[in-house]
Amino acid sequence: MSEQRDQFSSKIGFILAAAGSAVGIGNLVGFPVAATKNGGGAFLIIYALFVAFICIPVMLAEMGLGRRAQKSPLGSYKALSPNNKGWHIAGILAVITPFMIAVFYMVITVWIFGYLWHSIMGNLDMLANPEYFSQFVNDYGFVGFLVAVTIIINVILIGGVRQGIEKAAKFLMPALFIMLILLVIFVLSLDNAVLGLEFYLVPDFSKIDGSVINGALAQAFFSLSLGMGILITYGSYFSRRDDIVTSGKLVALTDTAVAFTAGLMTLPAIFAINPNTDPDALSDSSVSMIFSFFPQIFIALEGVVGYVGASIAATVFFLLTFIAAITSLVSILEVPTAAVIEQAKISRKKALLFMGIAVTILTLIAATSFGFVPAFTEFTFYADTPKSVFDVIYDVFYDTILPLNGLLICLFVSFHWRRKNLDTELAEGNPGYPNTLLAKYVRLSICTFIPLILAAVFINTVLTKFFAISIF
Ligand code: PHE
After folding, report:
1. Which structural domain range is residue 135 located in?
2. Vertex 172: Cα angle to 342 and 405 (nearest 5)
3. Nearest residue (CA) to ligand 1, atom 2
């Protein structure tokens, strides 16, 4: 009965698709701003250590698990622990999490599309009005942009792994790299740009405390698309001959390099426009940076390159961010789609239709929770603050469940599936792997301090987010 499982056509196809997933709004905006506010070079060093010593082992575990089981995360947990129903819950979480994160990411992507549209139409002055964003999010125009984004995503997903996801990544990712480099060159040519580089790169270790460390790990996890079931699913589309280990390392490297390069564009742009910017005053939220702050930066360029030049720069920026967001959304929606195809035994088309309807309804609910529908805006209350539907999705799934899913993967590999099976799996396509230093490190860390650190982050997040108690 089983049809041949769709596969990436080559290692490079996989790497671009996985990098497409990893490179997102988090890299272009979240990372540079977090680094500048939290000790510049000191943050960069901590982040790089987390990627190398915590994220890469988790990444290899996810990809290995997926390729072994040849299934979605739910199917993978089930297949590798047929008699232990407890682990099936981890599988369910690994499917629900991406679905819910897709909803909040979809809201932001639709807004980005709206801003891209307006930049192209010459409305940059309107976008730069400080009042505009709150007007924009409460406008019916959202529905039109939502329809457009849904069509774009489904056109890619309907093609499946090789003809859809891989093809799109092979075209979109190089386009993204080129646009990013062009913007960096342009921004660095502006006066005062170097000031921004100073805040971004010069280490200030006095800023580093428990919450910065916690934030750096959460950022690294999110940026590499860990804990979302994405790499389990993509691993299941990876050929047995291909080398998971090298590919994983390259994906991590690409993602980190793009995040780092984005800082060379974002910070210098901010300081070129206002050399007296106080880095501490920059918003923590990527949303307010993208939609309230950046349009003002672009309009300020008018004095240097004229209105048309400023609009072109804004268009390239929003297009770049839009491409990064679309390739991430495609990967995250593939997870529940693959699970529905597999568990309900329906066609890809039907699964996409079902997912499309479910995501659209939830996206509308989340998008109208910024004042448009009061019941969704003041949806609940915790940690002394009223929370909207959007806040709840963000707090529960992005902040809390992601590290939990990472923890569960480590525990599953260590105590149920067994580390030697992971080794054997990773050695396929890379026969020398079990004797490398990396393999020894993964075997040691995945059952000891990685799960301990993830558990500490999880507990700290639950206490701070939901009870307003901070332990570090
Ligand atoms: N890695 C993405 C980013 O940095 C996060 C993400 C991945 C979000 C996949 C959704 C889907 O923005």
Report:
1. 11-379
2. 45
3. 24
Residue ID of nearest Cα to ligand 1 atom 10 = 328
Q: Is 105 in the pocket of ligand 1 (CB under 6 A)?
A: yes
Pair 255, 27: CB distance under 8 Å: yes
Nearest-angstrom CA–CA distance, 47 and 140: 40
Write out the two tokens for 61: 């575990």
pTM of the model: 0.93
Which tens digit of pLDDT belongs to each residue from 252-266? 999 999 999 999 998
**Quick check: is 434 in a domain?**
no
Kindly give the number of the ligand 1 atom that is closest to the alpha carbon of 31. 4
* Residue with the two structure tokens 């004229």: 306
> What's the CATH number where 340 sits?
1.10.4160
* Tally of domains in the chain: 1
Q: In 107-175, where do the E strands start and end?
A: none
Cβ of 221 less than 6 Å from ligand 1: no
**How far apart are the C-alpha atoms of 406 and 450, rounded to whole Å?**
9
Q: Quick one: tokens of 90? A: 């981890």
Task: Decide: 223 in ligand 1 pocket, CB within 6 A.
Answer: yes
